[in-house]
Amino acid sequence: MLNILIHRLIPEYETPTLPHVRNAYGTLCGCYGIFLNLLLFAGKLAAGLLSGSIAVTADAFNNLSDAGSSLITLIGFRLAGHKPDPHHPFGHGRIEYLSGLLVAGFILLMAYELLSSSILQLFQPRETHFSPVLLLILFVSILIKLYMWHYNRTIGRRIRSSAMETTGVDSLGDALATSVVLVSALVRYFFDISLDAWCGIAIALFILVSGVQAARDTINPLLGQPPEASFVDEIKALVLDNPRVLGMHDLIVHNYGPGRIMISLHAEVPADSDILEIHDLIDNIENKLAATLHCEAVIHMDPIVTDDEEALYWRGQLSSILERIHPSLQFHDFRMVRGNTHNNLIFDLVVPYHFHLKDEELQTLIQSAVHDVSPVHFTVIQFDRDFTVPVG
Prior knowledge:
single chain; alpha/beta; Alpha-lytic protease prodomain-like; Alpha-Beta Plaits; 3 domains
């Protein structure tokens, strides 16, 4: 059903990475999710009231919270699509994260109310009634939620929306929660054991955990977090595709909301190249990044000396020294400054976060290893931290 709507309502559905197509996907899936969740809420609420089951009623309000979440997310998706203006030069993309944070607060409030009602039922139990209609509603609800999990996960990956993938995980959890309610009803019918209040507590706790997870998933990008490893790999592949680019470093990815990414990096190029020719090369790479990854890219050129045999020798020595200390250590911006009494090896050292040695200890180790090769060579090190370098 959803695929039919996509084909009819989104003309350019085959190019989901385009911002306006991505917004169309988000709007359609949001409306579709609201409709299904309201349908589930109405069915489960009726079943809960007729059976007197607090667990079924709790599950119904869980679906209502999902509908409210989808509505808020949909509104946020639409607002986030507004173009940049003088007061917001990088657009409004982060509104999508703010709407997600509002959804998380709504989910936490719903969890508190349901938890209170379920605990009250432990001390003031109500009679529940089993019926085939209740069984059918719960079973159909599980199937619908599994369907919602499938399409949210599939389309979330297609348009690179972590929010939609999170919604898919939430739908899968809802299917499991409803399964618990179904088992509770069956236990009550066949064994005359009431687990209703306990199931209500379990669902409330599940909603609570989902709310905390949703809050974390929206707060992290607002605070700033590293991009996905696959996105970094795409950037590296595009930049290093040209043989005249010898390396890249100091990659920074600024996230101003889905589809609004800014990239800055340093590209290493031969120092003896024609400056205008290399400038044109860098412009082409920036344009390629923008066209392929739909981002804005700024590249700084770093000249690398390739015809100085002594400098190349020390570059190789330094690589061997760092490899012996730890394979994750990397360096860049290497140059050698010669003097009458000693020579300085100047470079930036990239150290992973939470590395087991302090900067001072690394400095001592590297300097000692360099002195073992030549006592007249000294190191001048600028320490960097890079999210793209894992600790092995």
